[in-house]
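Renewal narrative, Specific Aim 1. Our central claim is that a sequence can be written position by position from structural information alone. The example that follows is taken directly from our test logs and has not been curated for this report. It begins with the structure tokens describing the chain, in the order in which they were read.
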């Protein structure tokens, strides 16, 4: 561990980890996990648990992570009985397998570009997006985390958007658990950042004329910022500035910063009531939240004199904060 308590990973450890992950894929492990995201049988439960244990050893995860239906997956439950009780047990097994499969895929692809492409090419995106609508909060969270990791490379993001990610993520940011909402905001933030990169690339070279379908929306390269806004993404992000956990607030602010790089989105962000919670983030304990809040407020200040006036009034109230850092940022 370094002085901050973070794990120090040398190059040989990274290479060994990548090799082990490749072995999991080469022996058909990733394909089995992807299949478990949707087509689950009772016999899959013990396999899912063993796969999770294997992946945990590969990436050093905590194998004790709780999942619905875990007792059955470990072999301590059984599917005997009839009627509602048996149905409930079977449903618990299905949910537990899906939770574990999504968690395993997320851990396998994190920080591994080659593994990300493998999993995407094997068809993981659509069933992961479907899990965002699961009745299980853990399934939603694990699936959102896996999708977030798949978005680490900008080159993957177009494929994920084409699969319908934007509408699903916006819906999750409205109705998911607090953690799931924060993860949805994290993915939206990365997709928005990727859109900026694509716009810069289009300025340097010929624009792509092909469009890809997301629900009823047409998404061309670099047009993602307006599509996220059109899908209703701004309002739940603004809400997260108040209701989210520290990470969720930070990711929501980051996403809004990226979205407002398209000047057409600034008025919508202001009308959604973003100014008060963004100013309040300046007094938040999360340092990255401060950075994103300052950037977001700077965009809004350029939007109109009315926004400038609102921001100024809110900042004046923070000058009485006992925090010297907050006073300085104000």
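The sequence written for that structure reads:
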């Amino acid at each position: 561990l370094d002085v901050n308590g973070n794990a120090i990973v040398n190059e040989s450890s990274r290479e060994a980890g990548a090799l082990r992950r490749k072995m999991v894929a080469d022996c058909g492990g990733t394909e089995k996990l992807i299949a478990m995201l949707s087509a689950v049988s009772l016999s899959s439960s013990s396999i899912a648990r063993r796969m999770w244990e294997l992946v945990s050893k590969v990436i050093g995860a905590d194998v004790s992570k709780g999942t619905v239906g875990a007792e059955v997956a470990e072999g301590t439950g059984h599917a005997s009985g009839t009627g509602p009780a048996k149905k409930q047990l079977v449903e618990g097994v299905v949910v537990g397998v899906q939770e574990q499969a999504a968690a395993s895929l997320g851990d396998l692809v994190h920080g591994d570009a080659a593994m990300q492409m493998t999993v995407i090419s094997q068809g993981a995106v659509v069933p992961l997006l479907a899990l965002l609508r699961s009745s299980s909060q853990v399934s939603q969270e694990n699936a959102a985390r896996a999708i977030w990791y798949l978005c680490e490379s900008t080159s993957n993001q177009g494929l994920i958007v084409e699969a319908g990610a934007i509408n699903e993520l916006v819906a999750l940011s409205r109705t998911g658990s607090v953690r799931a909402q924060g993860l949805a905001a994290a993915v939206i933030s990365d997709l928005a950042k990727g859109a900026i990169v694509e716009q810069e690339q289009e300025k340097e070279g010929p624009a792509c004329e092909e469009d890809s379908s997301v629900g009823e929306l047409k998404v061309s390269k670099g047009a993602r910022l307006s599509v996220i806004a059109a899908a209703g993404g701004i309002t739940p992000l603004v809400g997260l500035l108040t209701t989210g956990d520290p990470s969720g607030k930070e990711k929501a602010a980051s996403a809004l910063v990226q979205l407002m790089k398209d000047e057409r989105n600034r008025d919508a962000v202001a009308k959604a009531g973003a100014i008060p919670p963004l100013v309040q983030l300046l007094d938040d304990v999360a340092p990255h939240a401060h950075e994103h809040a300052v950037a977001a407020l700077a965009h809004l200040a350029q939007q109109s004199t009315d926004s400038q006036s609102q921001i100024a009034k809110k900042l004046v109230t923070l000058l009485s904060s006992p925090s010297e850092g907050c006073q300085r940022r104000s």
